Amino acid sequence: MPHRPALTWLRARASCDKLGNVNGRDAARVAVLVAGSLAASACTKGGTPSTAPTFARDVAPIVYARCTPCHRPNQAAPFAFLDFEDVKAHAEDIAEVVRERIMPPWRPARGYGAFSNDRSLDDTQIETIVAWVKAGAPPGDLSHAPPPPRFDGGWRLGPPDLVVEMPQPYVLAAEGEDVYRNFVLDSALEGRKYVAAWDFDPGNAPAVHHAIVNLDREGMLAALESNDGQPGVDGMDLPTASPDGFYLVWAPGNQPNAPVDGRSWRLDGTTNLVLQLHLQPTGRRESVQSRIALYFADRPSPILQTTLRVGDKPIDIGPGDKDFRIEDSLEVPVNVELLSAFPHAHYLGKETKVWAVEPSGKEVPLLHIDDWDFSWQDKYVFREPVQLPAGSVIHMYFTYDNSAENPRNPNRPPIRVKSGLRSVDEMGNVTFEARVANPEAHRTLRIAKYERALERDGTAVSAYNLGNANAGARRIDDAVTAYRRAIELDPKLFNAHYNLGNLFKSAGRLDEAEAAYLAALEVREHSVAALVNLGLVHKKQGRRSDAQKRFEQAIGFAPNMAAAHANLGVLHRESKDFDEAAKSFARAAKLSPENVQILRFAAQTADAAGKTSEAVAFYERTLDVRDDVRDRTALGIVLARAGRLKEATEHFRRVVAQQPSFEGGRRNLVQVLRQQGLEEEAQAVERGSSTPKP
Amino acid sequence: MWRAALGAVLVALALVTLGCAEGAVDVNGRRVDPLREDAPATLLLFVAEACPISNRYVPEINRLYRDYRARGLRMFLVYANPGSEPKSVVGHVADYKIEPPVLIDREQALVDKTEVERTPEAALFDATDTLVYRGRIDDRFVTYTQRRNRVTRRELRDAIEAVLEKRPVTVKTTTVAGCHIDRR
Q1: For residue A316, what is the enclosing H or E element?
Q2: What is the ipTM of this complex?
Q3: Whole-angstrom Cα distance, residue A472 to residue A483?
């Protein structure tokens, strides 16, 4: 609480002094003023005593490291701390907020859990700052002060591989309550990438309080729009998925994490990013257009992660209840490593504590926030991953204050508040990023997680997620049951129909697949993915003309969908209509120039249609994307058949060099060498003694 | 206790007026004594360009101005931090679309007179130029970083209403959650 300090040191000043005017309140001030000027003059005359902290020696290193990352131009914090004058101008505010641990913002109670992103100051640092302000904020020898940190203003991890920006700004009103707004962003990505690191540019730092990025893998939120004429939709919690067990949170002052151990999450071109911004009015209209920077890894993550959530018990807090409590626990069925914890409640949250108990009985402290402030949402990253053996139980509680004395209570007078996703409802949970050792454990953990979620919330989305987890583990019957449950709960859930279709299709249950895809198309008539897959089912059913009709329908709705063209091409090829097939593949390859499968089909079909130079060109493009001995062999054969023996020889040599164990490669090389009369080398290759020149 | 302190303030005001010329200027550098003209009520509202809390109050500040001008309230926003220069103030007024007239309290004479310590902090004078209310606009902010979702008390409006209706002001001081005014 701010209060009038009894002693106001910085009142010492020259103009309009009122020494003749002494009343009760001023008497102390005058005394202080005199003492203050004495102290000040002592300082200036005799130099700063070595006991008094100075800016240059003691305060600058703390401020530059802990405050300036946010307190600099164009960042969230209100004033810049880039030199002595900047800091001195706010000395009293600084002393107050560090003493009361309001700044730097850091909610976890000290000594319970250890976190690598701990921003807080230790007691010595706080004492230093407070003593410095008390001493009149002396500069010390500024020529020896450390330089302020430099920020070049660009992305902190260097140039990103992809930047996804809100297509249009959101305009935040000058005043009003805080806004939670969600934006569904198209990555405009072709194909699949693996994201190893990310960074966030709020676009308007003072207005953006924090941001969370989730995924809409299934296009469930594509149609999300509000009727207020602005982009995005309000709400605190949407049915989105965290990307492959990552929890992506940005808050002012967060440093982006550089890629760790090859950890990454999958981003497909069809996946939308869902950006949630917590916006706070600043007093003037603010235009907010945020950007997400993504950094790609070369390959899928070797590390398996999932998010685990504990909490979400029913909440029903009567008006005036000062100490409503929920408790929950979660037993982990496999060994896990907890990487971070993200607690979440809304306005009435008061305290939360999270700990684990190992099967041996050993208690592991994880996180304690004894004065919950919903306006500081953060992900707390454990300094060392917390290893929990299978059978460990994670415990949590959250308490709530629904009394009028809680200043954060949005209701005057208090009203009954229940569980719900809107900000006026309450929630209480902790989400962990958890790492597991192998795919088996990953599947087990995910199935357990969604079974629990479905049991808890009974929602179609949970049933659908359980279906996906079971499908991923090839537990077909369980997956079917879960998808059917999802459909029962929400017949309009397109993805449940669609994934059920995919499951039946992969299991060869064609009639059931057909029915599921038709149901999906009832919900979303223009779904090209469902049309293409239905076409593929028809093909397997031997209904080729129905298949062609579906592919053509898909192309009608989405002329730029490479897969539809490619599948039509396959159909034509199987009907031996190589010219039509070649045309379809050429279109597909143009739309998806890096898809090896399509390029390979295009090459094969051009070859079958007798278009050698096109075939060669497509194989070369295939090899540019991915060097594969099969494609190189095929290219060699096309060239050899066309009499381009020298070129063929080079390719066969490389094949043998790349994969000496491949007998066919050796035979091809021998054959093409003999065709050119190079008997000696051919024999050497046959004996396996020659090292072919690449 | 308030009575005694208020008496002291009155003495102080007299002395200050005698002791040195009022130091506030408008953005063109012209001296302005906000209390010189007769008015049923005069409000000095101390703000700062870089104080996020006083900035968040701008819409309410504009509403106060619109709501009470016709009823005779004279109102000035006062910039009193040492760094406040005409240029920064003019920029701030434009940026936030601030409507009431503004003053720069270069010598912090108005700060001394009112004994305000933070921004945004109000000092309300009645027709006799007696300080009748000093403190926050309302209870929106509990600390620097903690805000109420709903305002429950609007002490400044209550005080203005009382003064304009020639009733005694009941709540005469409140604590302000805001930024310190830096003293010269």
Answers
A1: strand A316-317
A2: 0.70
A3: 13
For residue A205, give the amino acid letter.
A
Over residues A149-157, the mean pLDDT reads: 80
> Is there a contact between A405 and A345 (Cβ–Cβ < 8 Å)?
no
**Cβ contacts from A onto B, under 8 A:** 138
* Residues sharing a CB contact under 8 Å with residue A211, sequence separation 6 or more, in sequence order: A200, A202, A249, A250, A251, A275, A276, A277, A278, A290
A393 DSSP β-pair partners: A331, A357
Do the Cβ atoms of A408 and B148 come closer than 8 Å?
Answer: yes
First to last CA, chain A: 77
Average pLDDT over residues A93-103: 91
Burial class (CB in 10 A: 0-12, 13-18, 19+), A438: exposed
Could you please report the per-residue DSSP string of A37-55? HHHHHHHHHH---TTS--I
Percentage of the residues of chain A whose pLDDT score is greater than 90: 55
| Peptide bond preceding B86 in cis form (omega within 30 of 0) | no
Burial class (CB in 10 A: 0-12, 13-18, 19+), A30: middle
Would you call A37 an interface residue with chain B, using a CB distance cutoff of 8 Å? no
Q: In the prediction, which pLDDT does A5 show? A: 35
Helix and strand numbers, DSSP H then E, in chain B:
6, 8
* Closest Cβ–Cβ partner in A10, A24, A96 for B4: A24
Does A361 reach chain B within 8 Å, measured CB to CB? no
Using the structure block, give the residue that is written with the tokens 């619109």: B66
Cβ of residue A206 closer than 8 Å to a chain B Cβ? yes
How far apart are the CA of A407 and the nearest CA of chain B, in angstroms?
5
The 3-state DSSP class for residue A367 equals strand
Q: Which of residues 630 through 669 in chain A touch B, CB cutoff 8 A?
A: none
Residue A11 has pLDDT above 70, yes or no: no
pLDDT, average across residues A669-691: 85
- Give the Cα separation of A476 and A507 in Å (integer): 8
Token representation of residue A623: 């090899």
d(CA B14, CA A169) in angstroms, rounded, equals 54
For B184, the closest of A13, A93, A102 (CB atoms) is A13
Structure tokens at A340: 């971070």
pLDDT digits (tens, 9 = 90+) for A519-562: 999 998 888 889 999 999 999 999 999 999 999 999 998 888 88
Rounded mean pLDDT of B7-17?
Answer: 38
Tokens representing A648 are 């063929």
What does chain B come to in residues? 184
CB A322, CB A403: distance < 8 Å: yes
Place of tokens 């249950």: A509
Query: Do the chains contact at B180 and A16, CB–CB below 8 Å?
Result: no
At A155, give phi and psi (nearest 5°). Answer: -65, 140
Contact between A631 and A602 (Cβ < 8 Å): no
Considering chain B, what is the average pLDDT of its residues? 86
Residues of B in contact with A282 (CB under 8 A): 52, 55-56
Name the residue of chain A whose CA is nearest to B63's CA.
Answer: A175
